[in-house]
Protein 1
Amino acid sequence: MARAGEAVIEIRGVGVTYRSRAGVVRALEDIHLQAHQGEFVALVGPSGCGKSTLLKVVAGLLRPTEGSVHLDGVPVSGPASHVGVVFQTPLLMAWRTVMDNILLQVEIRREDPRRFRQAAQELVDLVGITGFEGYYPHHLSGGMQQRAALCRALIHDPELLLMDEPFGALDALTREQMNLELQRIWMEKKKTVLFITHSIPEAVFLADQVIVMSPRPGRIIHRMPIPLARPRTLENMGTPEFARLAEEVRGRLKASGALD
């Protein structure tokens, strides 16, 4: 585990090229990025710029064509045990209850689920779905399903949490509520988070640092620290400072050709 102030994620010159039916596709080019212990880093960029590809590289699910990724100073050569991943959709098993879906993570790791039941219950309480432990996914709203998916990602107490646009499919009101909940959980758990989003306000609201990416091939074109005090509230979104930060991100995207 990295100590305070040390880099949990270090991405060094990563590029990804792959072949498709249309030919060779250059997805990422010369990516350099660090995320430090307890830092919340948001990646924002246009569709197809390689954000999800980069997350897969960090997660050890995809090998880069060039460059390398180090987690806690160790080169990534495959999925790491101290990483949790939350995808765009909850990916809950329809035939398993909420509690059993959460414990699936430890079963896959060949641990005894009974040892983690108390930790799972504490996470359920933390994310606000107490009372739904025995329900099946089709009984839950989209927001509740994503809360269960977050519990599953946290059950093994990972140091690093990778989130691939986890709230993109939710309605606007639920998405705002989940932003507040994620901030609260992050402040309590102090995980390092790499968060992908298409939403500029969401990136500014959640992050300590917003990374702006160009259209494909994805490159980092701007790094912007977010100096807003925490905890942040929805009322912060209406302030001149929030508007200024969001407009700066928007301007960088427009200058790159991502916005017309």
Note: The mean pLDDT is 91.
Protein 2
Amino acid sequence: MSVAAFLAELRSRDIQVWADGDRLRCDAPAGVLPPELRDQLRQRKSDILKFLRSAELLCRQQRAIVPMQPNGERTPIFAVAGHNGDVFCYRALALQLGGDQPFFGLQPPGLDGRSEPLARVADLAAYFAGQIRAFRPNGPYVIAGYCAGGTIAFELARQLLCHGAAIRFVALFASPFPTSYRLLPRLGQALRQQVRRVGTHAQALASRSWEERSLYLGDRVRQRIARRDALQGAAPDPVLALRARVERATLTAVRRYTPGFLAGRVTLVVPSREWLRCEGTPLRWRSVARDVEEHFGPAGCDGANMLGAPYAPAFAELFAERRVTKNPSVR
């Protein structure tokens, strides 16, 4: 009889068994635990303790560690989601990496409707670090982060290194330097986006007749009104509401964070050179890490679409190249 079946039989008799350190504890109503079951508990103590610890570990794992692709013997990748906590942004990349590359998303607290979001990068990193170390003590690991999650991944790597873990490298996907999330840089970026938007419309209007310009502007106004009415008329989505809470907390955390030095290897995964001209702050990670390299994606790729089709294969190839490079672990 398997351990799980044996424990199920005990539960059917109202016999409770639990681990207390290296001891196996048992609570049973009077006369319910016969000598033969007591002997089996003694004989199978080691296996039962191992099973109970594995079950406990699985429960802890499920809070934050989301298996995107759990199989394979290669160094596992633990990837922090973007600002809204959606780890499934990595789905296409994990698929492209193949069945021999373990890939786990890291989901922040606050998305389950029971826990509260964390508003400090150090706290988020500690939350993930504790569960990673319980799941796979000491590493080695590859740590990744997307967009605002890159800042959390950076601090996560620092904390894991402080605990003696081995980090192959840290991959930051389209991750601006945290100071870019502060008020003045955000206002500057919004202004640049507005200028580009006006320029696009001005270029479109310049090639049209007066009548066509009127139709063009009227169409844009109707589209804006339709989007506004759709948002106002839509029923509140509880999942989106939870993500919005996590997003606000994450952006607050990143905005307040000042990176310390990382004695390790960082790979800046930049969507494209064109994207970098609009968002140049990722290169500032060079100032806070011992070893930094940049890899650029194909033309036309930007931060919003880099992890999906058709660009995911190009970035999966980057990981394939890193796997065959003889880079020592960093401790």
Note: The CA atoms of residues 84 and 247 lie 4 Å apart.
Protein 3
Amino acid sequence: MRSSQWAGIALAIAASVGVTALIFPYVPLHDFVEYWTAAHALVNHQDPYSIAAMMKLQQAMGWSEPQPLMVMSPPQFLPFLIPLGFMHSYLLARLFWSALSVGMLVVSVFALWDIYGGAAGQRWISLGVAALFYPVWHCLAVAQIGPLLLLGVAGFLWLERRGHLFLAGGAVALTTFKPHLFYLVWLALLLWSIERRELRVLLGAAVGVCVGMGAALMMDHALLSQYAALVSSDYVWEFTSGAGGVLRLLLGHKSHALQFAPMLPGIVALAWYWRKHRRDWQWSDHLPLMLTVSILTAAYGWPFDEVVLLVAVVMVAVRCASSPPMRKPATAWLIGNFLASLAVVLRYGDAPGMTVCAIGVLSYLIFNAAALRQNRETGTAEEIYSPASATPVLHGPTATPEP
């Protein structure tokens, strides 16, 4: 990247740190408190998955809710929290986390812009798109790990496209921090590996998980049993989120099976989609849709988790940047999705809020694909960028079919 682009990244990070420092004294404790307390428990050889221990630590910081906020990610995630455990200032740790999160977001959207063939001089559009995407603001406000998950997905696409399959597996291993959100992606990856008889991605992912797990177990040999005790407790059922959460709210809060009901149509959709595209599968072409469906039908998820849907949003942005007729509808959709998601979250809570945003992204992906298909059928030549070649391709009656 040019020096001006690096300067832009530095400016974005500095702005986020400055805003965080200014508003920090006026906001209540949020999700970052779970990372802070878990990190300190880990470095002090306490159980980071103990509800009682976390409650005690969080109450000492002013937490007043009946339940503590727990880190529900598996042990291979915990080594990423260790630096927080050595910070004695909560504000300093929060500023560090904000800077790191913004940096990962900027690097990820720039990488996605390049992956989908966006013009280098228009890379700033990806930042504008991210700034108008509601889950980004939600994620940064509560200091969740969405940027790290997005970095894993973007890194996988970037490395896979260049043929570094083992390293691509190491990148996608980051998604195991919240595996329920990516269950369709992992199923598609398994099918793809079997179809192509290519195991390097799976091997790289396994090595990445094992390295993280090994580092965590060096800190606490009992982490696996501690994590198993947490996920088998009643704590997880206290929360309703995503499409399954909406079903539980409508049909019965105690109906735990409803939380997983949306996964069934998700698996059916993957089976149909894989059968249709297995012969010409390209990850950059098909991952955005599969990821969107996976997020929408995940058993658990919150609006801040939908930061990873920037994969789909940036892909559409690249197409619209080179198609003037699509720019206004795309911008209107992006702003409308932001306002609708915010309004639903404020009025009805996180469960329906996540559903609204994911449905909005899925709907626009379908609309965008239909618009491109109509342009071909009517003979309207439209220049877009092909992610496979990262060069302009004319779509018209005699053009190369759109992936």
Note: The chain has 18 helices and two strands.
